[in-house]
Design goal:
alpha+beta, YojJ-like (1, seven-stranded mixed beta sheet
């Protein structure tokens, strides 16, 4: 059996498998940059239900799903139209082949710039809504604001959140070691148990954290209190040193995968064998 498998795995077949796997990997990475991943999960659930209904011969369920097939074939391209357009644009720009890699020194400098900015704005009671992107892509929310694509600095963050600046009311999204976009609109949390004392910034931070794994920093405009929101939970009354520790802990290993992360994984797997 093993000999037959080894006879089948030629260099040409191995290259073919790696290329196809890499394309699917990059497609998943691009889908994760948008909210389309939720729709994709729904389609996968329907496929699982269809498989189970066929195996168990559930005729009524199978009939309903068969009637939905035509609707899905027509509806999916329409529903996914913005995501398909963005994917083709990225393919044309060549961005499908690479992502940014953050070295340790750059990451630590980025953290210090953020801490310095938050410390100053908290002292001056300047409202802040700063989002650090992690695994879940936030491109859809970035598109609601103004694309910046600038190096992170304390001075730039202060200017963005300056009370009379046009972008200060929205969220600023950090991707990798760059300020990706500013003045972005985030979904408000619908949790009825949120304290009435919390304003729109805190509700927006909670809303985004309920839909993504983003690390969100909020500074209250009324009190200057520093808060962190993640996974639908809020931690308030933080000092700048505690915030630094949380950032270093959460992002100890930068999560921005480089262009060859999948190929590196395949190489390591083959080497172990």
């Amino acid at each position: 059996m093993f000999d037959r498998i080894m006879d089948f795995i030629t260099i040409r077949n191995a290259v073919d498998i790696v290329i196809v796997s890499y394309v699917f990997y990059k497609m998943m990475m691009m889908i994760r940059q948008t909210r389309a991943i939720q729709l994709l999960k729904g389609v996968l659930v329907l496929l699982v239900v269809a498989f189970i209904s066929n195996e168990m011969q559930l005729q009524t369920v199978s009939w309903l799903l068969s009637q939905l097939q035509t609707v899905l074939i027509v509806a999916l391209p329409i529903v996914f139209q913005p995501e398909l357009r963005k994917a083709l644009e990225r393919l044309g720009q060549g961005s499908i082949f690479g992502h940014q890699v953050i070295d340790r020194a750059t990451f630590e400098r980025m953290v210090e710039e953020i801490i310095r900015a938050v410390r100053i704005m908290a002292k001056n009671q300047v409202g802040v809504l700063l989002v650090l992107e992690r695994e879940t892509g936030l491109s859809d929310y970035g598109d609601t604001g103004v694309l910046v694509n600038a190096d992170i600095s304390c001075e730039l963050l202060e200017n963005i959140f300056f009370p009379k600046a046009s972008l200060h009311d929205g969220a600023t999204i950090i991707r990798g070691d760059k300020i990706y976009a500013a003045g972005c609109f985030l979904p408000l949390s619908e949790n009825p148990n949120i304290s009435k004392s919390l304003g729109t910034r805190h509700r927006a931070a909670l809303g985004l954290s309920e839909q993504s794994d983003a690390f969100i920093i909020v500074v209250s405009e009324e009190t200057g209190v520093i808060s962190v929101v993640e996974e639908g939970r809020m931690t308030r009354y933080l000092s700048d040193s505690t915030l630094r520790d949380m950032l270093l802990e959460r992002f100890q290993t930068p999560r921005n995968a480089n262009a060859f992360s999948f190929l590196s994984f395949v190489h390591k797997s083959i080497k172990k064998k």
